[in-house]
């Protein structure tokens, strides 16, 4: 799948317009339009990083020949911080957060990669 199609598909799955993606990614709407239409084949690394971050897609996934896009992960230190806070919760609160997480994943299956267990 071409990069242009991957970016457009990811944007549409999130229900974003090009203008909204432009605001979130700090990439101009005309640039996004050119990328999605395939008019530009040379994309600067910084632009690609901003788009991947805004779309929550791993950069390697965007650049690969694979059809499927992989969600980006949080940096390890952020995951560790979240896990430490979670572990401090009472069992009842942990269950509540698992249910909230599952509800979020159920509402946005196109964005989710892993299920809360």
Give a description of the structure.
By secondary structure, the protein is mostly helical. It folds into two domains: 3-63, 434 Repressor (Amino-terminal Domain) (Orthogonal Bundle); 76-107. It is built from seven helices and no strands. It has helices spanning 3-13, 18-25, 29-37, 45-55, 59-63, 76-87, 91-107. The protein starts with a helix and ends in a 10-residue tail after the last helix. Residues 109-117 have low confidence and may be disordered.
Count of separate DSSP helical elements: 7
Derived structural class: mainly alpha
State mean pLDDT (0 to 100 scale): 79
Q: What would CATH call the homologous superfamily of the largest domain?
A: lambda repressor-like DNA-binding domains
Tally of extended strands? 0
Please give the share of residues in helix. Answer: 55-70%
* β-strand amount: under 5%
Order of helices and strands: HHHHHHH
Distance between the termini: 32 Å
Q: How big is the Rg?
A: 17 Å
CATH architecture of the largest domain: Orthogonal Bundle
Described by the principal axes of the CA atoms, the overall outline is elongated
Give the class-level CATH name of the largest domain: Mainly Alpha
Counted up, domains total 2
Specify the biggest β-sheet: none
């Amino acid at each position: 799948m071409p990069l242009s199609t991957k970016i457009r598909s990811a944007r549409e799955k999130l229900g974003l317009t090009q203008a909204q993606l432009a605001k979130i990614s700090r990439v101009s709407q005309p640039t996004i339009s050119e990328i999605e239409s395939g008019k530009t084949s040379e994309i600067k690394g910084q632009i690609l990083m901003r788009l991947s971050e805004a779309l929550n897609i791993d950069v390697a996934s965007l650049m690969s020949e694979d059809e499927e896009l992989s969600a980006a992960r949080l940096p390890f230190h952020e995951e560790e911080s979240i896990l430490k806070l979670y572990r401090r919760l009472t069992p009842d609160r942990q269950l509540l957060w698992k249910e909230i997480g599952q509800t979020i994943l159920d509402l946005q299956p196109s964005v989710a990669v892993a299920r809360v267990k």
